[in-house]
Amino acid sequence: MMDMNDALQTFYAESEELLEKMDSALLLVEGGDNNDEVLNDLFRSAHTIKGSAGIFGLFHIVNFTHIIENVLDNVRDKVITIDKDLLNVLFKAKDHMGTLINTDIQVYEESEELKEISSTLHSALNKYADIKTSEIQLNEVDSEINSDSKSTNWNIHLKLSSDCLQNGMDPISFINYLMSIGTIHKIITGMSELPNIQDMDPELLYFIFDIEFESSEPKSAIEDTFMFVIENSTIDIIETNSPIKQFIDVLITDNPTVTQIDTANIKQTEEFSEKVTVSNNDNGNSTTTDSNSRTKFVRVNSERLDILINLIGELVISKQRVDSICEKTKDDVLLEAIESLGNHTESLRDAALDLRMVPIGETFQRFRRIVRDTAQELGKDIELTITGGETELDRLMVEKLTDPLIHIVRNAMDHGVESTETRIEAGKEPQGKILLSAFHDAGHVVIEVSDDGGGINKKRITEKAISLNIIDESSTLSDQELYALLFHPGFSTKEEVTNLSGRGVGMDVVNKNVQALQGSIEIESEEGVGSKFSIRLPLTLAIIDGFHVRSGSSDFIIPQATVVECMDLAIFSTVDQRRCVNLRGEMIPYIDLKEFFKLKTTEPEQVVHHKKTRKEVVIVQFGEERAGLVVDDLQGEIQTVVKPLSSIFKCLPGISGSSLLGNGEIAFILDIPQLIEKSISTENRPMETFK
Amino acid sequence: MSKTILVVDDSASIRQVVSIALKSANYEVIEACDGKDALTKLDGRKIHLIISDVNMPNMDGITLLKEVKMLPNYKFTPIIMLTTEGSDSKKQQGKAAGAKAWIVKPFKPEQLLQAVKMLASA
Hints:
A: alpha+beta, Helix Hairpins, elongated
């Protein structure tokens, strides 16, 4: 059985979504796109949050959101237009709603700070909401408080719809109910509508009631009494001590402009229903079928999804095992069956991985807000352009990518884009531009953040690096090496770390986070023109297409996407005693896995068995860098499921994970970026001779 | 046999709360997330009552009401509007389109059940 707690969880999830919707709607409005649909969305989001919060008794949210809703209602009805000031307040108010939703009501009641923010925002919003609506707030929210106020005299004029008896509504029951919420002083039954006896239908009601009533309940409570008969009835509830004008108003405006006769809920004879069929064809579009075009979504707990994907991973492994066993049987029928099983396993794997894929666009949308706020803080005019939002990547990666990306974008805005004056001086457009884009590139996803700012000042970096003793004055660095210094811990060229880009993490942490996702960051920059940070990531973390190699008695897997080519090491002559091979004119450093991992040499008899002593070199590439990995034996392509290493192995350099092979052996997945880095740094060391 | 009620609201949490209340009183509940969705649920099965929000994407509650009133099988199905909109003009619109009752959120489940009991008694 569901309980309210489930519903509350739904509320939280739903509110989060609605807040995001509000955010993008506000940004659209800011961009000048304030069509009715956007304004309606904006209103509806606040409206729904308020409505749902009320159900759960979260009155701190209700009270705060109410006024936002009023303002948005006025905006929607074009009573007011959104100007820059209002927009700023609305952004803040929206953020505060988010805070309130995440704050327990008791905590809120005790937090002066939060209440203070609420009231500041309220007073800022108040001038946009009219007074009428704040009265309603009292009625709706504080009706309990109102109940002990002094009683009021009411004059109730009741002309119920003539068919109300047929509908099972007895006027006496309403009068009884009124007596329970107040005192009836007098009832006058009017009979002016009574027809001649021969025209009288005994099932219809002809009486009109005038009731003098005293109650401490608000007007709405009295109105609610008649909620089931309001159709086709004339019900006037007037405060007797109110000015006479109101009587007249009511008489004029509330004149029963005979609403359509439309009765319903009780058994009706067919002919009766013929007579009362409504003439509501004014907008006669009978739409009943065209709602299938929308894609339907189902919410699934992400843990369950992970379990499913893990299981499918295991299935892929088992299948490989079966494969290798079947190979030996040479049974054609069996092999054929296995092949078809293989196809299905592959489709199943792809489908499962697809489940984890989400378009990056949603994350990108958040940047509109971040860029807007940051630009305002910095006093810069910066426009964000987003492309490739439909590019999909692993949900887990998207989550982990957000923070590094925020940092890079902030950095670009703070250090990259110049102030408006400087830009004008340099002959650039006054408005700075940030481009956030994503695209697929050879089995990878590339996310680029580029700006049209001043570019990276190489001289400043060199000076700073020298002063920090990261490099010495004599060293000459390539551009890439120079930029890589930015990722050095503690490196920041700005004299004082600004509030913005200095927030929380440095570029070194950004780099580490990206590397943890098996990704890399490349920097391109030209002074005076701008910079570009490219994050290159694998499509998914769960399953990799790998290249199986052996070194010593250990199995290794090289992620397929990084493999460039394989060669016999013997054909290369070493260059100047450096650990380097000459690949068609390009000098490529290499590393011997056996040496690197300090592996035992292959047992002699196995060498004899393989009849080979030569070594192979696998050329791998990550980003712009290449390196060679020297191995004993190439085993071929393999598709494998990544199993994360347990924490005690985390410190092992050069290994990013493990995997089970079809024969049950464990293989290590190589961390190519790390190995390339290692090979470059050890390139100049003298070689040990191979045994 | 228990009565079937169609609950239309774009807020999943409200649908859930209403469903819990109704199911506790032994009603069958069908949910729809907006007016259009609701119309697809009116596929010939017996529905005793519709409870609908007013402000929803794709098709609002008032339009839904009007549409329902044009469906031969459902034109007599009573409809309760359940909404935060307390404005008189909206109520008037709902009334004109044939709403049987108007409950303003936040409501108490008992309130809702009482209204449902009265209207679903056919």
